[in-house]
Specification:
Largest sheet: 6 strands, antiparallel, barrel
CATH class of the largest domain: Mainly Beta
CATH architecture of the largest domain: Beta Barrel
Helix content: 10-25%
Shape: elongated
Structural class: mainly beta
Distance between the termini: 42 Å
Number of strands: 12
Order of helices and strands: EEHEEEHEHHEEEEEE
Number of domains: 2
CATH superfamily of the largest domain: RimM
Strand order of the largest sheet: 1-2-5-4-3-6
CATH topology of the largest domain: Elongation Factor Tu (Ef-tu), domain 3
Length: about 170
């Protein structure tokens, strides 16, 4: 079964020719796409991208076959997806999908279990791992190389440099 990953969301229309104003996760990745899927009524409908341009913090996307506001409005609020394989092919060496990180166990550099990842967020400066510690607290750990020293998806393990105060 094909797995889909969200890369954006149709927020509204732009102009009268069926252009979509969309929020997105990665500008460079979105700009490289030729095809996307829009989820409607629990079905992933494929669309060819005619063009994408960026305006302020939004993407303006023209999808083939959508030539009016009326045709676009049925997709307002819908998420934009690509197949998981498309994303995996474009991941850089130290990039991971969020669902790969959630539930990984976290250990300090001495091998002591610190907890497990419950989620990933972003504070504008970096991604943050939400980690439920052994004492049942949730702490935020910056997902930067100086702190997260190793991620091993196969072993389901993350190693961190447990600097003073990080897990408190």
């Amino acid at each position: 079964m094909t797995k889909y990953i969200s890369v954006g969301k149709i927020l509204n229309f732009h102009g009268i020719k069926g252009e979509a104003k969309a929020g997105y996760s990665r500008k460079d990745f979105l700009a490289s796409l030729d095809n996307v899927f829009i989820k409607k009524d629990n079905e992933y409908k494929p669309f060819k991208i005619e063009y994408i341009r960026f305006h302020k913090n939004f993407a303006i996307i023209k999808l083939e076959g959508i030539d009016s506001i009326d045709k676009l409005l049925e997709y307002k609020g819908a998420f934009i997806y690509v197949e998981e394989n498309t994303i995996r092919e474009n991941l850089e060496k130290d990039e991971f999908l969020i669902d790969e990180l959630v539930s990984l166990e976290v250990y300090d550099e001495n091998g002591k279990k610190a907890g497990f990842v419950t989620g990933v967020s972003n504070n504008g400066a970096s991604d943050l791992l939400s980690v439920r510690t052994e004492s049942k607290k949730i702490v935020l750990i910056p997902f930067v190389k100086a702190i997260v020293t190793n991620v091993n998806i196969k072993e389901r393990r993350i190693t961190i440099n447990n600097i003073e105060g990080l897990l408190e």
